[in-house]
Amino acid sequence: MGQEAKLSIYLCRLLRHAPEDAGLDMDRRGWVSTAQLIENVNQGGQYSLTMPQLEQLVAADSKGRYRFSPDKSRIKACQGHSIPWVEPELTPAAPPAYLYHGTTERAWHAIQESGHISRMSRHAVHMQADESKAWQSARRWRQAPVVLKIDARAMAADGISFGVSDNGVWCTGQVERKYICGVLRPAR
Description:
- There is one protein chain.
- By secondary structure, the protein is an alpha+beta fold.
- It is about 30% helix and about 20% strand.
- It is built from 6 helices and 12 strands.
- The two termini are about 30 Å apart.
């Protein structure tokens, strides 16, 4: 794995899970000072980071996980936080008819046993309107990937609310098994 990929993983860790690892002052919406991020990463000695590198990492992220403020003085992860006190900025919205959740065969078996898709340590269950993006999420686990097709229209009709992040990830607290209307597996 190249240095840029490692830096991207580190950035994800800092902005989603452990801002304290770099001494970042994160607000309750997940925003941190871009200057502080660069300075503290460089002081840590493990990585070297410049503003152009950070801009490139944000632009190249295939999932659009990060956002700069309009003046680029602040940066945040759009969703995926495991930090209990962070409240991701989600826009309440009616979902499309179907959403897709990328996971693994192993997790699918656990979902069947528990009766629901859990948010795990995150603030919400993440879903995609685009099936190909769900496949991208499923494959990141490096295990047998599956994509679950969710009847989001039925969930909304039953009063379950949804929010959508800046990068188009659909979020909700939990998805009961009864709303899973398909299990998609890779073509052989």
